[in-house]
Amino acid sequence: MIALRLALAVSILTGLACAVPASAQPATGSVVTVTMNAQNGSGEDGSATLTQGSDGVTVVVTLKNAPATDQPAHIHPGTCAHLNPAPQYMLTNVANGMSRTVVKGVTLDQLTSGTFAINVHKSTADLGTYVSCGDIKTP
Fold this sequence. Notes:
Elements: H1 2-19, E1 31-38, E2 46-52, E3 56-63, E4 71-77, E5 89-94, E6 98-104, H2 108-113, E7 116-121, E8 130-136
Antiparallel strand pairs: 1-2, 1-8, 2-3, 3-6, 4-5, 4-7, 7-8
């Protein structure tokens, strides 16, 4: 009787362990660093750090040689070489070379397993000119 109960308990626990894939629960604190490369002669190189949090992914963009004016930033489907012009996720404007955004409802696994890029525009008045871009890649 005890052996039967033990076997039943083990089978239930094994079933529960298999019910939720590990990839569905990214580790809070996981970090990916994206190299941001200057485009169109802007000189705006830098990096973006993506950190998994409990409520989404925190994206911190840091650019050198950026102007004081606001520069819109987004996560776009595609790569810097072949960017879909329609943004997937809005980021806080880069101001004085810095932006910090929590993208809620998305995981780092989703961003690294797909094809996405972080893109920064010259200004709110000139969205057609890209000044920096970085492909989000699996670490």
